[in-house]
TrEMBL record:
Coiled-coil region: none
GO biological process: transmembrane transport
Solcar repeats mapped onto the chain: 40-127, 155-243, 258-359
Family matches, as InterPro entries: MCP, MCP_dom_sf, MCP_transmembrane
Transmembrane segments: 127-144, 156-176
PANTHER family: SOLUTE CARRIER FAMILY 25 (PTHR24089)
Keywords noted in UniProt: Membrane, Mitochondrion, Mitochondrion inner membrane, Repeat, Transmembrane, Transmembrane helix, Transport
One Pfam family of this chain: Mito_carr
Protein name: Mitochondrial adenine nucleotide transporter like
Topology of this chain in the membrane: Multi-pass membrane protein
Location(s), subcellular: Mitochondrion inner membrane
GO cellular-component term (any): mitochondrial inner membrane
Amino acid sequence: MVSEDAVGKSSESAVSTIVNFADEAKLTNGGVKAPSHALLSICKSLVAGGVAGGVSRTAVAPLERLKILLQVQNPHSIKYNGTIQGLNYIWKTEGLKGMFKGNGTNCARIVPNSAVKFFSYEQASKYASALFFLFPSLVFYGFIRQQPGNEEAQLTPLLRLGAGACAGIIAMSATYPMDMVRGRLTVQTEKSPHQYRGILHALSTVFREEGPRALYKGWLPSVIGVIPYVGLNFAVYESLKDWLIKSKPFGLAEDSELSVATRLACGAAAGTVGQTVAYPLDVIRRRMQMVGWKDAASVVTGDRKSKIPLEYTGMIDAFRKTVRHEGFGALYKGLVPNSVKVVPSIAIAFVTYEIVKDILGVEMRISDG
């Protein structure tokens, strides 16, 4: 039960929070912020997020392509047998161009995705406490901030998880068709049933031949997967930074600042935790995206006689058929190259975002570290 004291304090906090948000919308002289100033700040934040996504994804493009190839290859005709062998095979058969195949499409998707994701997280973090305080049941009281009543205190890991999940869902949904065609462009070869010439051609072809719903195949497991993945990324990254700054173990933090190397390590830890939890859903999403693409399995293996089931009635059916025909381990195909990819990718994205925002002169929000 929540005491009357707690209810009173939470009500005061709610009023205080709302008043603070209203004050933020005003200048110190009592005027209202110029729309152009607010728009410029939003644009800078979006640019920082977009640059972070583009830089981080390009840095690990070969590993990203190998991960997808491992996820969808025919188990009866194995061509890619691990990270080193897989990268060597791509290099020998397709050269440098093959290592970065699909990266242009990937960046075209990840740049807006990253921009929306970081911006959405900042906004969700900014207003989350006010939204939670407005719940009459006060069920979430005590989970809002680490120090209730102190509005300058950091958000709790639980709230960061929620804000990150919201940001991930918004960003993923807004750019999902790009991810769908990126997967197909990545796995296509000269023997592919379709030869997509680029992003727009792939989008128009899928839309025309398979219908608009095909652009969102695998969306459900993506929504479910993005909750722990993006949510844990933000929660682990910010919480780990806060802990390092407060406890200063091994002298890693000086004057409430962390070095670039330390922040990269925080990002690596965050990426590792998030992707390990959500990886099976990523595999299922990728396979569902290939449904409807005739002989999709042969795109990777060249084996057109394969009996691998490619028709799924939904996410649960995709899980069931994958485990039944290939075993539970199939849900983690490509995990090793993905782990090698995620560690630097997430780390680079977080640090690049903070650096670019600092260069552009935008007020920091991610941990304010």
